[in-house]
Write a structure and sequence with these properties.
Chain B: Keywords: Membrane, Transmembrane, Transmembrane helix. The structure holds 2 protein chains of 2 kinds. By secondary structure, chain A is of the alpha/beta class. Chain A has 10 helices and 13 strands. Helices cover about 80% and strands about 0% of the residues of chain B. The longest helix of chain B has about 35 residues. The two termini of chain B are about 30 Å apart. Classes of the chains: A alpha/beta, B mainly alpha. At the A-B interface, helix 2 of A face helix 1, helix 4 and helix 5 of B. Bound molecules: adenosine-5'-diphosphate and magnesium ion. Magnesium ion (MG) binds next to helix 1 of chain A.
Chain lengths: ~300, ~260
């Protein structure tokens, strides 16, 4: 059980995390989403006692992380896979971890096997690819067989097979009753595995709900194509929210198909295509975090695009 | 009780950290070669100079100067062992596995300084033995040996504790090494030879001067005593460890 209450972190004059409150329940995979710079890593670092909160609390299993006698048995976490001494072997890295928390050394070979690093365990980390370092970090997270797992952007650097593997790992962990919190700046990465999402933007909570709820609430829209898209956009903007979805194409939120069609007809504007588009989590994410993005490129307005950062 | 158990586990982990990086072994091997060679040369020299004027002179006295080399080498080891965690980012997993920072501070200090002191005493004994086997007149008096090894423990112990403090304070291997060289070699030499009274006084209170005073028994001015040198070394060790420790305990664990 992860519990975040009024968590706030200032770096000088930058407020990285702003009065954040949420819980993560056991037996679920929770996606922790937000554009780059939203404060995901900082939140996770505070959960692990690496950064000191300016105010508020972050607890795991009812206690601050550092208060656990053997924290690796309570929380496994992978923050930055490249943050490993490059001169040690993967196995030595894990042995040191095992020593710190009184975990039997036999467990090292078990987790190496589970992440598929047995063959490379005797090599120096220096020679590992980013994907192998991610696997090593995941092995360290699993070492203490902890009920709570935190992963910060774990998919970075993994190939397609690795991405599939890590998704099934998350599902297995949740099925075993563990609490899994996975951060990402890409909705598409989390969409397939998460039961719930906690979305933040500029350090503030934007949404905390089941995936289905988020999609239902914010994703639905009407797509309309017209050779006079500009005129149609001006007309519809009075009644709903209009964004460009391509040449001659508009996305309209807040109006039904019928309302869009009738409005176009009344003003004599031709319509070549009119359809309701089911909400996608990506679209919902975009509409929720719009305005919460720290840095945004000129052309980042379409929901299909990655959130700029 | 749980703090003690955590401390024990952390000491075991810190030991493993120290001996599983190549830089530790490179430094120790180089240091062992240097001190062995210096001991052999000192013994050769002693064997040549026939008349042993001072009857109380022992092999320990002729090997004593190698203590300065031991100090420099082992301080470098302590700086590297402490600060490399920051350069590699390894500090993140380190603190994740041992979030009680006071425990980490204590364990790292004990392991790095403890190993250094043992290595220092061992190598100084080797150097003294190399003198004794070559120079017939010079023996390995147990009394002088005990006081020499006691001084070795003090000089190397306080120097390496200072190195741990500097590593934690600068969070950079290069920064810690440069600061240590400055405090041990450059500043004492430069400031001690300037025509300004205040700067010369300052130089007398630097750890490098303190070490020279303890090793050779006399300092830049007639008033400086070995006791003062010991005090200087201990004060620098305590001060830098305090500042470095505060930085570890009070601030975020950034690289
Ligand atoms: N150590 C730090 N010093 C100063 N600013 C920081 C530090 N760490 C993070 N920040 C700032 O805090 C904000 C949140 O960063 P971060 O938590 O890394 O976001 P995310 O992981 O969601 O991309 C950003 O504006 C970032 O620049
Ligand atoms: Mg991040």
């Amino acid at each position: 059980m992860i519990s975040v209450r009024g968590l706030t972190k200032d770096f000088g004059r930058v407020r990285a995390v702003d009065d954040l409150t949420f819980d993560v329940a056991p037996g679920t995979v929770t996606g922790f989403l937000g554009p780059n710079g939203a404060g995901k890593s900082t939140t996770m670092r505070m959960l692990l006692g690496l950064d000191r909160p300016t105010s508020g609390t972050a607890t795991v299993g009812g206690r601050r992380y550092a208060e656990h006698a053997a924290p690796l048995r309570e929380v496994g976490a992978l923050l930055d896979a490249s943050a490993v001494h490059p001169g040690r072997t993967g196995r030595t890295h894990l042995r040191i971890a095992a020593r710190t928390n009184g975990i039997p050394l036999a467990r090292v070979d078990e987790v190496l096997d589970r992440v598929g690093l047995t063959g490379a365990a005797g090599r120096r980390v220096k020679g590992y690819s980013l994907g192998m370092r991610q696997r090593l970090g995941i092995a360290a997270a699993l070492l203490g067989d902890p009920p709570v797992l935190l992963f910060d952007e774990p998919v970075n650097g993994l190939d397609l097979e690795g991405v599939r593997w890590i998704r099934s790992l998350f599902r297995e962990c949740a099925a075993e009753g563990r609490t899994v919190l996975v951060s990402s700046h890409l909705m598409s990465e989390v969409q397939l595995v998460a039961d719930r999402v906690v979305i933040i933007g500029r350090g503030r909570l934007v949404a905390d709900a089941a995936v289905g709820e988020v999609v239902g609430a914010a994703g639905r829209r009407v797509r309309v194509r017209s050779p006079r898209a500009d005129a149609l956009a001006r007309l519809l903007a009075e009644r709903g929210e209009v964004t460009s979805a391509g040449p001659d194409e508009l996305d309209v939120v807040g109006l039904t198909e019928a309302e869009v069609g009738t409005a176009a007809h009344e003003h004599g504007l031709p319509v070549h295509h009119l359809a309701e588009v089911a909400g996608s989590l990506e679209a919902a994410y975009w509409s929720l975090t719009e305005g919460e993005v720290e840095f945004r490129g000129e052309d980042a307005a379409a929901p299909e695009q990655e959130v700029a950062g | 009780m749980t703090v003690l158990r955590t401390f024990g586990r952390t000491v075991a982990a810190e030991w493993l950290r120290l001996v599983t990086v190549r830089s530790t072994w490179v430094l120790l091997v180089l240091l062992a070669l240097a001190v062995t060679a210096l001991g052999a040369l000192a013994g050769y020299d002693a064997a040549q100079g026939a008349g042993f004027d001072a009857p109380a002179r022992t092999a320990w006295d002729d090997a004593r100067f190698t203590l300065l080399f031991l100090l420099f080498g082992l301080v470098a080891l302590s700086c590297v062992a402490t600060a490399s965690d920051y350069g590699t980012g390894g500090i993140v997993p380190t603190l994740q596995w041992t979030p009680r920072r006071g425990v980490l501070l204590a364990a790292r200090t004990v392991v790095v300084a403890g190993v250094s002191v043992l290595v220092g005493m061992l190598l100084l004994t080797v150097a003294a033995a190399l003198v004794a086997v070559q120079a017939d007149g010079l023996g390995l008096s147990p009394d002088v040996g005990a006081s020499t090894l006691g001084d070795t423990a003090l000089v190397v112990g306080s120097g390496t504790v200072m190195g741990v403090g500097l590593g934690l304070l600068t969070r950079s291997t290069a920064g810690a090494l440069v600061t240590a060289i400055g405090l041990l070699v450059v500043l004492p030499l430069v400031l001690g030879n300037l025509p300004y009274e205040t700067l010369r006084t300052l130089a007398e209170h630097l750890p490098g001067t303190g070490a020279v005073v303890v090793v050779f028994g006399e300092g830049p001015s007639p008033e400086t005593t070995a006791a003062q040198g010991r005090l200087t070394l201990l004060a620098w060790a305590a001060g830098t460890l305090l500042l470095g420790g505060l930085r570890l305990l009070r601030t975020d664990a950034t690289r």
